[in-house]
Amino acid sequence: MSGKKPVKKVEEKVVEPIVEEVKETPKAKIYPDVEYNKKERRKAIILAALLVLLMGGMALVTAFGGQEFNTVSLMMGAIMLVVVVIAVSTIPSSFKQYPVKDEPIIEVSAKEATIMGRTVKISDIQEIRLTITLPNMGTKAENEKLIDECCNKEPERGVTANLDFIMKTVDLTNKKKDNNIYTTVANGYEALLIFYKAGVKHYQIVYSLKKLAKFSNYNLDETVTEDGVKLANVSKKDRLKQLY
Predict the structure, then answer these.
(1) Which residue among 25, 57, 154, 161 is buried most deeply as judged by most CB within 10 Å?
(2) What is the largest CA-CA distance in the chain?
(3) What is the CA radius of gyration of the chain?
């Protein structure tokens, strides 16, 4: 017999890799007013169609309808056709500005926001302007009275309004000169509050009625939260918690 002792086999333990669950940053979501946007789209199409018919017809008459064909009439007709092309080109932009899917057009987290597909840092938003269009009351005096009343109180909730973003820095990837972002959202006042809680300090609330426009005197710090506390008395940390 051999004097060698049998060698014990050491079982190799398979170490499972530790997979950490990546938690998605919670986001507050802001939606469009679908019915309002459908109406605005229809208006844009009708106005563009009328302009095409009017200017297109005038262009043809100007260029070829006269008894004498000359360079001036041809140039005038060409200019009118350019106007027609511009009118048609506004339709896609109107469709983009007024989405009709019931999906969020703005998502806001603690440090950044995605607005109409463009992601920006909260710190890069210089100012937000909320423009609320009021219904016509009739006379100019009645309209002025309505605007004055609205400017001295908290904005109404659940109202469709324009929410526009003035950016601090220029986005070099954006070839357009205007790097600001313009939106129309349902619940405009609530949307403004979301950004205010996220850290945007500068804002303007504007009331518009026909040719009249006036800045509101209302301070968002006076807004009372669901807990019955004014925003002025809520810490920045607690404001962020209220976003979601």
Answers:
(1) 161
(2) 127
(3) 29
Number of residues assigned to the chain = 244
Angle subtended by helix axes 71-97 and 34-64, to nearest 10: 170
**CA 55/CA 151 separation, integer angstroms:** 42
Nearest partner of 199 among 127, 130, 118, 117, judged by Cα? 127
Contact 149, 214 (CB under 8 A): no
Query: What is the DSSP code string of 19-72?
Result: ----PPPP-EEE---HHHHHHHHHHHHHHHHHHHHHHHHHHHHHHHSSSS--HH
Whether the Cβ atoms of residue 181 and residue 165 lie closer than 8 Å to each other: yes
pLDDT tens-digit series, residues 74-129: 677 667 667 667 766 666 777 788 899 999 999 999 899 999 999 999 999 999 99
d(CA 177, CA 225): 39
pLDDT in tens, 35-67: 999 998 898 888 877 877 776 666 666 656 555
